[in-house]
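It is worth pausing here to work through a concrete case rather than discussing structure prediction in the abstract. The textbook approach is simple: state the sequence, then state the predicted structure, then interpret. We follow exactly that order.
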Amino acid sequence: MNTDRWFYGVFQSAPDLIRWLAGPDDRSLADQPVPTDLDCQYRFLAPELKAGSHRLDGVLWPLGTDSGTPELPVVLLEVQMRADPGFHHHLAAQTFRFLQLHPAVEHWRVVVITPHQRLNLGPVTPLSICSPCRCAPSRSWGSAAAGS
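Step two, the predicted structure:
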């Protein structure tokens, strides 16, 4: 998908943007300027998960640690531009498959980028089985990304 390639390029060239997107849940991105002082604390990969070929849109690894830290968690990135009522089921499966393949990961977060918050992604119930995890709610990237 062209949109995935665009986001791949963005996070490949500026992986620390994830710190802005995965910030505190109690703020709106519309109120926050995009950071320009990136301090290179993440590297970006887009690994393929075997067994059913689950491909993550991206994983941002904090530099210097394979487990993440509370301040710099490993961030799983998903970009979803179309309605998919089974999306949260797929996301849960990909997330837990990733954690199974990377048992050293202790501090992690999921960020989903959507064109708007009205997009039908189905029930969030599959993600509730992981109550101690801190999965970020979907954040809208804005209408400019939807046209990509």
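Step three, interpretation. The chain has four helices and seven strands. The domain at 2-23+37-146 is CATH 3.40.1350 (Trna Endonuclease; Chain: A, domain 1).
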